[in-house]
Prior knowledge:
CATH class: Alpha Beta
GO molecular function: dipeptidase activity; serine-type peptidase activity
Order of helices and strands: EHEHEHEHHEHEHEEEEE
Protein name: dipeptidase E
GO cellular component, one term: cytoplasm
Strand order of the largest sheet: 3-2-4-5-1-8-9
Enzyme class: hydrolase
Amino acid sequence: xxxxxxxxxxxxxxxxxxxxxxxxxxxxxxxxxxxxxxxxxxxxxxxxxxxxxxxxxxxxxxxxxxxxxxxxxxxxxxxxxxxxxxxxxxxxxxxxxxxxxxxxxxxxxxxxxxxxxxxxxxxxxxxxxxxxxxxxxxxxxxxxxxxxxxxxxxxxxxxxxxxxxxxxxxxxxxxxxxxxxxxxxxxxxxxxxxxxxxxxxxxxxxxxxxxxxxxxxxxxxxxxxxxxxxxxxxxxxxxxxxx
Length: 243
């Protein structure tokens, strides 16, 4: 089995930065290390009708000065073949339920999993694209506007992530559940850990020997046994693979 190479972003946007620009150095370094200058972009998380071209152009425009060539999977007559030929895969944000449903419909779940885990193709996810890289999409923040055949996802990693993680606001008058409370509900019925990724952060995975929190904000690890623990940027989170 080849080394898995993953860059899992909490989001594509970060306050004070243009689209993807806060993650430019991470993306460029990640792809350069993996000798990939061509990126297959998968826009299936977009719920807006006929928007795949617009979404892909947004990514292409952001990366145009990075010496990276971006192709949308919808531009290929055969999505499975496009994944088989991909030098790098990037799945963007949007609605996680719609994204996973479409990946199953296009017969891409096993194909992407094989390319990443068996062939070492680098994978970049952002928001919904990060959600589907995990064990399941049970900890997404999105509304279920579409129904995938299962909530189990690409399973490139054996734990879950909650992108866009938000801390409880002190003295808030909001009476609904906090993000932490919702994750606690998840752990009543599920045992795998959940990484709460705040915006501006990412998890960089190099095989099982390196899983590093990078970015501008600390992260929170939730587990059934220990409730939650805070981890600063540059923390080694490889222990999540053994949970």
